[in-house]
Amino acid sequence: MFKVSLSRVAALALVAGLGFAGTVSNAAAQTLEKIKEAGVMRVGVMGEQAPWGSIDASGQNIGYDVDVAQLMAKELGVKVEFVANAVAARIPNLLTNKVDVQMAVMGMYPDRAKVVQFSKPYAGLKIILLSSAKNKIETIEDARNLRIGVPRGAAQDKAITALLGDSPNIRRFDDDSSNIQALVSGQVDAIGGNTTYKINLDRAAPGNDFEQKLVFNEQWMGATTRPGDAEMNGWLNAFIDKIKANGELQKISEKWLDAPLPTFPESLEGVPFAAK
């Protein structure tokens, strides 16, 4: 699955290089101007991954990424239109102009950076393995014979598959909520997730005994734009610097994660923060 995922990314890169060859570099550079002219910024977010992006009882988008996007729109003096994304559709939706900026928990990884442009990081989490306290798991090998759920194509899918190979015990689901529900219902014995999964597990199954077993890597999230869009990327980096400095990003972190902002890296190998 890990190789398949990379192949998918390579295919997208080819599409970006061929199908959009005459439009990406030119049209993308005008994204900021087009947003201002339209008076609307279309932002990709998750629709069912609290606390990053979800829908409340009144049908409104809420979450960490949503609050950051609302500040972005306010800074530009435009309205914001949220576009809910499935995990596998995030990059295609950006490259095919369905969104202006992709913020659906976009982990900053070198394979993705070959296809899209990341800003500086504005959020972080850890990619982890969760399971019942009854299961003794100290290394990934301890989980080899367990049924492990992952969201198809997500960072945890890649991490676990890289370690275990394409094991038949890895069960892939279409989204995070299905992955969490599989653990709660006993369809799987463990799930690859992130540090905010525990918040959602406690809501879905109060009093559960699920706990963090392993940490695979620390993931940083950036606001993602189409390649070559130096103007939009530059604006986003300046915006992130501003909301970090004035405390607005800190308030969002405390509101949704009940935690202070982490110390963001100044650079990530293979992931440039600035468009050339």
From TrEMBL:
<keyword id="KW-0732">Signal</keyword>
<protein>
    <submittedName>
        <fullName>Polar amino acid transport system substrate-binding protein</fullName>
    </submittedName>
</protein>
<feature type="signal peptide">
    <location>
        <begin position="1"/>
        <end position="21"/>
    </location>
</feature>
<feature type="domain" description="Solute-binding protein family 3/N-terminal">
    <location>
        <begin position="40"/>
        <end position="260"/>
    </location>
</feature>
<dbReference type="Pfam" id="PF00497">
    <property type="entry name" value="SBP_bac_3"/>
</dbReference>
<dbReference type="GO" id="GO:0030313">
    <property type="term" value="C:cell envelope"/>
</dbReference>
<dbReference type="InterPro" id="IPR001638">
    <property type="entry name" value="Solute-binding_3/MltF_N"/>
</dbReference>
<dbReference type="InterPro" id="IPR018313">
    <property type="entry name" value="SBP_3_CS"/>
</dbReference>
<comment type="similarity">
    <text>Belongs to the bacterial solute-binding protein 3 family.</text>
</comment>
